[in-house]
Amino acid sequence: MENNLYFLLNTAQQTLFRQVDQQALQLVGVSAAQITALHHLQSMNGCMQADLGDALGLGKAATSGMVSRLEKNGLVKRLPSPTDGRGYKLMLTEDGEKAIVRSRPLLNQLNVILEDGFKESELVVIRRFMHTVVDKLTAE
């Protein structure tokens, strides 16, 4: 199992998120998953809630729960969609933008740690591999 890609990726993801969660809660006041959602919203501000869920790989219930927590913490506003009576547009609040800014040093530090010991040519292959995993598993 030690060289099985599925188990290695799963263990790496769990380890990374556990580490980010601990630091993110202390430094930013939100979880790793919420930081990821906020960063997606920064590039998709005004998107539909369902689109955020798709970007995060979450179902409707999980997306709704995530957005509810972000809204409760004053990081996003959920606005009725002008085109879809059942959907919501999501807008970052000023506090949401501030949380993103506070998260950047943590994410930059983690990237330095993750990249340490690899040549740039190796990082190119790692990034290509990660993108390929996502592309292959979402191409259904």
Automatic annotation (TrEMBL):
Start and end residues of each HTH marR-type domain: 2-135
InterPro entries, per the entry: HTH_MarR-typ, MarR/SlyA-like, Tscrpt_reg_MarR-type_CS, WH-like_DNA-bd_sf, WH_DNA-bd_sf
**Keyword line:** DNA-binding, Transcription, Transcription regulation
Q: Which GO terms describe its biological process?
A: response to stress
Q: Which GO terms describe its molecular function?
A: DNA binding; DNA-binding transcription factor activity
**By what name is this protein known?**
DNA-binding transcriptional repressor MarR
* Organism, as annotated: Parendozoicomonas haliclonae
